Protein 1
Amino acid sequence: MDLFDPRHYADVRRPLAEAASLPAWCYTSPAFLEREVERLFLRQWLFVGRADEAPAPGDFFAVETPAGPVAILRGRDGVLRAFANTCRHRGSRLLAGRGSVRAIVCPYHAWTYDLEGRLAGAPGMDGVARFDRGSQSLVPVRIDQWGGFVFIALSDAAGTLTAQLGDLPTKFAAYRFDEMVCTRRTGYDVACNWKLLLENALEAYHTGVVHGGSLRQQIALDEPTTGDWHAIFIARDQSIAVLPDEIPPFPQVPELPGRLARGSFFTAIHPNTQFACTQDCMWWLNLWPRGPEACRLEVGTCFPRTTVQAPDFALKAARYYHRWDVSIAEDNAIGAVQQAGLRSTLRPPGRYSLREFAVHRMNNWLLDRVLDPR
Ligand code: FES
Ligand SMILES: [Fe+2]
């Protein structure tokens, strides 16, 4: 069977009210994931974290991508760079997790790289013919930033970050993301396909069931976008980042206009990221495939710097962290349950609810790229 024959997907392509969801193999097949990596992960800008997570020279964070390990590192010159996180000698991974270094020293034979990625020392290489240290720098990876958010591109095929983000920077300018700082990161290994958690984040249909005892029912409205992202809008005149019975203790971002003051946006920034933006903070979900039926979810939370500097920040932030810990655990659990069911080869694709308009749109965005004969 040709997995990429468009006829298999004709029902996904229909208008929402007539459409059916993606075939289950899109969530279980190694070949389908391989195509997604080639068409999405290697051709698009990928969000990896915040510039303020590596504020000083030598600060770094590492990420495991479909093109292998990548490190984001601030140089002595203050510039944030990205490198393939692999030694030029025999390939050992260099940096793990996050932290700060004075130089990068390979754990295997101690080749040493400076903070700009140049090979500074390679003991025991005397006498090796035509060994040119100048050509042994760490392999650079494309990097760009917007609003303090850091993106990388794993090949030259990606266009500009600006083109990919479309109208997102304009629409969300008033949140002043530049003035926010990342206050917490959590990570989860989840037994489901990477797309399931993003799809889940783009519909509120499940909220009254999965989050019945926490967030409770939400109603999502359509939010038109241009560029490689989609969004839903949840109307509520106060932050949605605490549980519904709580009064959000932090001030709103000053001078939020119109809809930004009246609700929250849940987005999918394709291919693998969600930004959730509410009146007093934002948080992200960053998804990395670990095979077709498993993924790594990284969650980060950002508040305005002025909020974080308040003396009682930690005490109040605990209520936000609690809300996230509860709801993310609920979403991760249902993702694994859905994955378990999707292993069935007996069920034909199901129908979408009209409340899943953004999931339908996102699935079609994916097919546009995965099925493209190029
Ligand atoms: S693999 Fe890095 S020094 Fe040998
Ligand atoms: Fe959810």
Note: The longest strand covers residues 180-190.
Protein 2
Amino acid sequence: MIVCFSGTGNSLSVAKEVLNHLPNHSLFRLDHSNSACMLSEYVEDNEIIWIFPTYSWGIPPVIKKAIDSFNGNNNAVHHMITTCGDDIGNCALQWRKLLKRHNFNTGCAFSVQMPNTYVNMSGFDIDAPTDEAEKIERMPERVKDICDTIKSFNGLPIDDVVKGSIPCIKTSIVYPWFKRFEMNPAKFKVNKDICISCGLCASHCPLCNIEMIQNFPKWGDNCTMCLRCYHHCPTKAIDYASKTLKKGQYTRYKNLVGE
Ligand SMILES: Cc1cc2nc3c(=O)[nH]c(=O)nc-3n(C[C@H](O)[C@H](O)[C@H](O)COP(=O)(O)O)c2cc1C
Ligand code: SF4
Ligand code: SF4
């Protein structure tokens, strides 16, 4: 079974590519009514592949919640594939520790570079079109190699990831700070002069965290900072802390996540 969370479609496109090579797997998307708690039902599969984006060199809160409530075959082997714009710090180690806490067996961990979606702070923006195209072009070959490694897994855990510089500091210090202060849905604002009240941000939020109140979006507290609402707004009416007004939107997989 593949368990996938994807904000803007990169991880979902990787999951679909994995399915081409491992067609015996089913795909469980953590999205909308497929909430993490549905995974608490007993899962008999003996191979679980977690596919999700890296957020601030760590695991998205929605994935942590899903692993915490996962109720599966104790003999199953778990692998992870995380997509990232650049590097993942010690995200793989964090994932291994979390699974070990639940006595699950961890196998291999992989990272796949995909177009960047993080735009909320100064200095961060979506990739230039040429960089985006290069990453997309490299993805199928990378996924094929990953699936070959998973197929020949012999019990020895492998980390095939790009950690980047100072991974300990990024995952142990920056990640908790980021989770506390920069995963704050109260910082989202809608520009009412631009918003056309289409309601897509609300209907597409994977955690159902947006309500339309008097024709405009209102954010609740249950946010994993996937930025789907920001990137997929058709009029770019959404801003985060006045930091994204001049940033780009990443829309390549808009239709894929809306499928
Ligand atoms: C909140 C947030 C934090 C991110 N942090 C990182 C990071 O630490 N390292 C990195 O290389 N990319 C980071 N990114 C980029 C995403 O991991 C990357 O674009 C990913 O492929 C998005 O996957 P998705 O389209 O499935 O949501 C971040 C993106 C977001 C939205
Ligand atoms: S998606 Fe954009 S335009 Fe549509 S309701 Fe939300 S903020 Fe307004
Ligand atoms: S509110 Fe926006 S950023 Fe938060 S989970 Fe929903 S779509 Fe993602």
Note: The longest strand covers residues 105-113.
Protein 3
Amino acid sequence: MCGITTGMGNLYEFRMSKWLEKLAVFSIFVGLLALASCSSPSDSYRTDRAGARSDYGATASSGGEVVPAVPSKSPSALYGEANVKKSYIPNGRHARKYKRYLDPKYITIHSTQNFASGADAWRHAQALNNGKLRAYKSRGGNRIGYLTWHFTVDQSVVVQHLPTNEQGEHADFDGPGNNTSLALEMCEHRGNSRSATIERTAKLTAWLMYKHDIPLRNVVPHYHWRREGLSNPHKNCPHYLLDNGRPGAKWQWFLSRVNKHYKSITNGSSTLVSAGGMPDSRMFC
Ligand SMILES: [Zn+2]
């Protein structure tokens, strides 16, 4: 009885394994088809990214509005205007003892809320480079015992602290904000021009969109990232670009500045080209 049962069992198993083999081949075929369609984003995706709608409402290029024309310039010219100086945290020390690879898909905007006199971009670089910005490391909280981010912006300069292929520790612990975004901090010390800082931030953001193929809708305030485990999971940051602690008209205005600079280096988005049939520079000259 046992033998027969085993024999039938073997036959059954043999048939099942053949069936599973066919299923596996079919799955691989379907998987390859899906991969093929994912790995080659369509041109419309690539060219329409400035016009894509943000989670927080319309962008400057939608709803029939038109962004004022600006002279076309090269991406490197815009990068030059942002005035980025590199001062990386020493490799292997302090916050860079711990490296996590970053493939940037988002850009997160913060403000420092550091109102101390002289707390400009270079002062923040000094603190980061000397390992002074400690944080309480905990499971589900800060992962490395330090705060880090990629760029600090003030009225006259941008200082870069991390390469763009390394994760910072600035938004949401082990959440998607830290895992997928580049972080910009805007200075708020006394005497620093807020408008000049915002404009420099908008220029750098536009250049980073271009450099890393990031759509405007993926330019987000820190508020966007949910900080699990906190009673107030959505931080009011950057506070002066939010309305009552949430993205609103001020955030829209900031996105329109970013969009303007993005268009200045991409010679207009396809939104306007397809609508008017002409490039931006001709429509507005
Ligand atoms: Zn923040």
Note: The pocket of zinc ion is lined by residues 110, 222, 235, 237 (CB under 6 Å).
